[in-house]
Design a protein that fits this description.
Layout lengths: L5 E4 L4 H8 L5 E4 L10 H10 L3 E4 L8 H4 L1 H22 L3 E6 L22 H16 L3 E6 L2 E2 L6 H11 L2 E5 L3 E2 L2 E2 H18 L7 E4 L6 E2 H13 L7 E5 L19 H7 L6 H16 L11
Parallel strand pairs: 1-2, 1-3, 3-4, 4-5, 5-10, 6-9, 7-12
Antiparallel strand pairs: 8-11
Helix pairs in contact: 1-7, 4-5, 6-8, 8-10
Length: about 300
Amino acid sequence: MAARHILVTGGRGQLASALRAAPGLPVRVVGRPDFDFDRPDTIAGVLRAAEPWLVVNAAAYTAVDGAEKDAAAAWRANCDGPAELARLCAGAGIPLIHISTDYVFDGTKGAPYVETDTVAPQCVYGASKLAGEKAVLAACRRALVLRTSWVYAPAGKNFVLTMLNLGRTRNRLTVVADQKGCPTAAGDLAAAILAMAGRVGEAGWTDAYAGVFHAAGTGWTTWHGLATAVFNEAERHGAPVPQVDPIATADWPTPARRPADSRLDCGKLAAVWGVALPEWRASLRRTVAEICKTSFAPSAGEAGAT
């Protein structure tokens, strides 16, 4: 088994890229056009050619607001495609780790969500992801769903990079301060997934591994709190630091309705898998440092300036 690969879908996405870069188990990443949920015939072909011993599905339609305008595309990528992938994995006896989202909840609980809490998505994106969860678990008994939240990385499209890029051109920003969640570094999530895969590879699959698990950074904040933390870290590296003012969700209307409090309780992941993701501030510190090292590094002539 050591010579065989884990197949990761998602192409150049944040999690797929983090899994590709992570040390440890051999990983093969696939994406468009070779693997495309909009072209269901590609799924079986890639799976057959790769002959993986485990699959991680990190492919998804993640444009939350865009899904409100193109629900059909969101459902194909977040439900129909994963359902077909799960069916094929079941037929081949391959375990499947499917990535989902905190947006399956409505955000009204007032405390971190556990896996058995009532789901009630408030937007097309959340509804399509929830449908995908159910379809995957129904199709493949060796499947597990990992719900995560507020994922960011040194590259790609994410809140942390957006803030740093906006800080280059604006002296003042307004950021929503009444939505709570758990920031998650893609690298941390990748490490958790590979640790889980390692256990499966060494000891085999057990029924306790199936079902839904929450996997997010330890601790929580608001979008405003995250933005403030981003710039506090960036300031250490000489990056521009704008003023960040808090606003209410009502003052920043968006096509998709987002949960006000989607914090995730990850206790089940620790209990069953022995895995816990790091505290979010420590991971953010490393990520911002990596971004600033490449994006905001001083030129040679400025290095010795006082």
